Amino acid sequence: MTKVCLWLAVLLIGCSLSLVTSQQRARRVFIDLERAQARAQQLEVQWDQLQLEQTGLSKVSLIDSRARKTLAMQPLAADRTLHLSIDMVAQARAREASR
């Protein structure tokens, strides 16, 4: 009888330790989950901010002003502009003749 009681006591202690261990693991996993969710929310806010910033940076007036200031770019004068016209029919005939 004593051996049975001793065996049951050891079994009870083992089960108690495994219960405590599993609860501790569950707490750690829950804490990690909360941290991951908070990080995901931070990243989503940061993504939204970056999209707003990209929208602002893509405005034509901002691009023009930055090109003038940082790159020292100037608009072309009309006398320095050359307009070319291409005769599509003549170009097609030239392609056919070269075949």
List the helices and strands and how they pair.
Blueprint: H1 2-57, H2 60-70, H3 88-98
Report on the architecture of this protein.
There is one protein chain. By secondary structure, the protein is mostly helical. The protein has one domain. It has 3 helices and no strands. The chain has helices at residues 2-57, 60-70, 88-98. The model has no long low-confidence stretch (mean pLDDT 88).
The percentage helix is: over 70%
Strand content: under 5%
- What characteristic shape results from the CA principal axes? elongated
What Rg, in angstroms, do the CA atoms define? 37 Å
- H/E series: HHH
SS element count, helices: 3
Describe the largest sheet: none
Give the number of DSSP strands. Answer: 0
User: In whole angstroms, how far apart are the ends?
Assistant: 106 Å
Total separate domains: 1
* SS-based class: mainly alpha
Unreliable spans: none
